[in-house]
Write a structure and sequence with these properties.
The chain is globular, with a radius of gyration of 17 Å. Strands 4-3-2-1-5-6-7 form a seven-stranded mixed beta sheet, with helices on both faces. The chain contains nine helices and seven strands, in the order βααααβαββαβαβαβα. The chain starts with a strand and ends with a helix. It has a domain of about 130 residues: Rossmann fold. It is α/β, with parallel strands linked by helices. β3 and β4 form a beta hairpin. α4 runs parallel beside α9.
Length: about 200
């Protein structure tokens, strides 16, 4: 049996940190895992910028409340879930993701948790497990599942390459150039057709 493992930001919903960067005018916060492969380094850098500007969880959640899934994302998920079990594997955080999961019809999500002080300051973050995307895929495989994986960023590559079939979706030109063996798609219809073909293989 196949389990389809999808990244969230950039694939199903806009990048939260880019939206927050645009809303606040803090250009440094537009940096994502498309730019920085080391997620721990990236998050610590982000938290430092938030502290410097006196911004906390509420300000980010206010921006998230204005974000909608990418056009066609919910329909894509609804159609895919007719044929396969789908798990969204994301390095985002429960406090960010749940409003977006509601708009996507509450698909299964594995993500991380923020540590938040009483005053709303984000003081840290707790990763669910080390190398969470690859580790989850390997555990699913150890349980007897085959995996098909897709994403857009550096932190998705390990789970994509470890899976029976893997795809890039709306990735960067550099990532596509560095990984020419991975089929890359820009539109949900083509992406869905490729996954369904892999499910039948």
């Amino acid at each position: 049996m196949d389990v389809v493992c999808l990244d969230m930001e950039g694939v199903l919903v806009p990048e939260i940190w880019i939206a927050f960067s645009e809303a606040t005018g803090i250009s440094e916060l537009s940096r994502t895992t498309r730019d920085e492969p080391d997620y721990d380094k990236l998050m610590k850098w982000r938290l430092g910028i938030l502290k410097e500007h006196g911004l906390g969880l509420k300000e980010i959640q206010d921006v998230i409340s204005t974000i909608d899934p990418l056009p066609g994302a919910k329909e894509f998920l609804d159609e895919l879930r007719k044929d396969a079990q789908v798990i969204i594997l994301s390095d985002t955080f429960t406090q960010f993701a749940m409003p977006l999961m509601k708009k996507l019809g509450y698909p299964t999500l594995f993500c991380n948790t923020l540590e938040v002080a009483d005053n709303g300051e984000i003081t840290g973050f707790k990763m669910r497990i080390e190398n969470s995307k690859l580790t989850t895929v390997k555990h699913l495989q150890a349980m007897g599942f085959d995996t098909i994986a897709a994403g857009d960023s550096y932190n998705d590559l390990a789970m994509i390459k470890a899976s029976r079939a893997g795809f890039l979706f709306r990735s960067t030109e550099q990532i596509k150039k560095d990984n020419p063996e991975l089929p890359a798609f820009e539109e949900f219809d083509d992406f869905l057709a490729a996954i369904k073909c892999a499910l039948k293989a």
